[in-house]
Amino acid sequence: MLTITRELRDRIVAHARADHPDEACGVVAGPEGSGRPERFVPMLNAARSPTFYEFDSGDLFKLYREMDDRDEVPVIVYHSHTATEAYPSRTDVSYASEPEAHYVLVSTAEGNGDEDPYEFRSFRIVDGVITEEDVQVVEEYSA
Fold first, then answer.
1. How many Cβ atoms are within 10 Å of 127's Cβ, its own excluded?
2. 64, 66, 103, 142 - which has most CB atoms within 10 Å?
3. What's the CA gap between 108 and 43, in Å, rounded?
4. pLDDT in tens, 72-104
5. Per-domain residue ranges of the chain
6. Which pTM does this prediction carry?
7. Stretch 27-52: mean pLDDT, rounded?
8. pLDDT of 101-138, one tens digit each?
9. Containing H/E element for 64?
10. How far apart are alpha carbons 17 and 109 in whole angstroms?
11. Within 10 Å of residue 74's Cβ, how many Cβ atoms?
12. For residue 128, is it left (φ>0), alpha (ψ between -120 and 50) or beta?
């Protein structure tokens, strides 16, 4: 299960909406070994595409060096789907290189409904196998 604060969830969704109609992407880093997403790091979609995302290699290298210096890992790797449901595509699966990460997808497609104008789902992707997991949204993490 992914446990995430409402603030972080809302920031991911806001990034997805702001970059629409292009896919948005980013990382939420957290202390190594904690499994706790804490530091929101929106990234630029270098592909600037409504159907595909790609992290800029230089930005990604800088982020990994920064996380290493701070003893952090990518707890969440997120991106948006602008016209389809929030479910990993074959391309998403092929890019999933962090077996410990939660892969969050946000759909900003029309037709998600008035009550919930976006989909926010989390998956584990290990060796090409997709497993959806529950998402628990909390106001703050307990000690």
1. 7
2. 103
3. 17
4. 999 999 999 999 999 999 999 999 999 999 999
5. 2-138
6. 0.94
7. 96
8. 999 999 998 755 555 578 999 999 999 999 999 999 99
9. helix 57-69
10. 10
11. 22
12. left
Q: How far is it, in rounded angstroms, from Cα 75 to Cα 37?
A: 5
Strand order in the sheet with 72-81: 39-43, 25-31, 72-81, 102-107, 119-126, 129-133
Residue 82 per-residue DSSP state:
S
Contact (CB, 8 A) for 41 and 29: yes
Backbone angles phi, psi at 59, to 5 degrees: -65, -40
- End-to-end CA separation in angstroms for the chain: 18
The DSSP output letter for 71 is: T
Quickly name the fold that domain 2-138 has: Cytidine Deaminase; domain 2 (3.40.140)
At residue 64, does pLDDT exceed 80?
yes
Q: Classify burial at 122, counting beta carbons within 10 Å of its beta carbon; exposed 0-12, middle 13-18, buried 19 or more.
A: buried
In three-state secondary structure terms, 75 is strand
